[in-house]
Write a structure and sequence with these properties.
278 residues; 76% helix; 0% strand
Length: 278
């Protein structure tokens, strides 16, 4: 019977995801998540540039950005808003992973649909992580992501299987960075946006995705280096990647460029708050 056909079931799932995403309250908070994400990226880029110019220290990663944000007037309120916004963004992506994307109901094939669902689930995990981090800093109990990662890294390095696992994780992180670069260079990010976008938004997306992709790939490289050398502290995430970059020849200039790239991605996140398909 037609009413029980797979296409009909997919349409029902897609419409359910659409109703969830397009609930006005849900959508406003979810879009606010892009704004909070943009602020976090702006602060990370600023810290990176500050480190390059020899200014006061700080951790050039998500935890460092949230630490700085918490210290500003109104920062705690912003972190509480961010906690709710990131959680709703995670639920939105989780709904897409379970029910299908409301913004891409015409998936080219079952394979394309499966890939979209895997990406949605991955983003849901990422946003839940952001929500937990923002919650921790809002309560005053946030921790440096670098210190949190060093312990598990050192533990895994005690065995050959753990070392292999770290190398695999590093390669996956590099692949994620490569995907960001591909998405930026090929302007595939435009598929995530509604309607016609300005040249400014296109440039922000292109530069921002490439810069973030390079930063993510550098993290993966550090993880692999940590797995092959008896120095687990090298796997210190984005902050470690930036500081390693700054130590290279012409590192100051490269670090400033990287910081500007992350800031550009932050600005693009503001555009996402307005134009993202939901």
């Amino acid at each position: 019977m037609a009413e029980n056909s797979p296409s009909k079931e997919y349409d029902n799932s897609s419409s359910t995801a659409g109703r969830i995403a397009q609930n006005s309250v849900f959508e406003r908070f979810a879009r606010a998540g892009f704004i909070v994400s943009g602020i976090v990226h702006l602060i990370i880029g600023y810290i990176a540039i500050r480190i390059a110019l020899g200014g006061a220290g700080g951790t050039a990663d998500q935890s460092g950005a949230m630490t700085e944000l918490a210290a500003k007037p109104g920062g705690i309120i912003a972190l509480w808003v961010g906690t709710v916004a990131f959680a709703l963004m995670a639920l939105w992506r989780l709904a897409e992973a379970a029910l299908g994307s409301s913004s891409r109901p015409d998936a080219d094939s079952k394979t394309s649909e499966a890939i979209d669902r895997v990406k949605a689930f991955s983003l849901a995990v990422l946003y839940f992580t952001f929500a937990l981090s923002a919650f921790g800093f809002a309560r005053g109990s946030g921790k440096s992501s670098g210190s949190e990662s060093a312990g598990p890294t050192a533990y895994l390095m005690r065995s050959t299987a753990g070392t292999i696992a770290l190398v695999v994780v590093g390669l996956i992180i590099i692949a994620i960075g490569g995907y960001h670069i591909y998405k930026g260079a090929g302007q595939k990010f435009l598929d995530d946006l509604e309607g016609n976008t300005s040249n400014l938004v296109r440039r922000l997306g292109l530069i921002g995705y490439i810069a973030k992709g390079l930063a993510i790939a550098a993290i993966g490289l550090l993880v692999i280096l940590a797995a092959t050398r008896p120095e687990p502290d090298q796997a210190t995430g984005l902050d470690g990647a930036f500081k390693t970059l700054g130590a290279q020849p012409y590192g100051v200039a490269l670090l400033i460029i990287a910081g500007c790239g992350i800031i550009t991605y932050g600005l693009y996140s503001f555009a996402m708050a307005r134009y993202a398909k939901m």
